[in-house]
Hints:
Blueprint: H1 2-10, H2 17-39, H3 42-49
Amino acid sequence: MLKFVKNHMESIDGIATYPMISLLIFFVFFAILFWWVFTASKEHIREVSELPLDDSQPKNLNP
């Protein structure tokens, strides 16, 4: 099965550009995420991390 797919993919012109585009998208996404993590304010991170423990709003368990 893999041999069939490999032979079929080799017959497509320009197929080598798709892995490069995927790698570029992957790298850009994680570079932006890395930048956001280090530039986010500590107050925002603290506020978001305490959300699961916040009991100030009542929970509606009955739909």
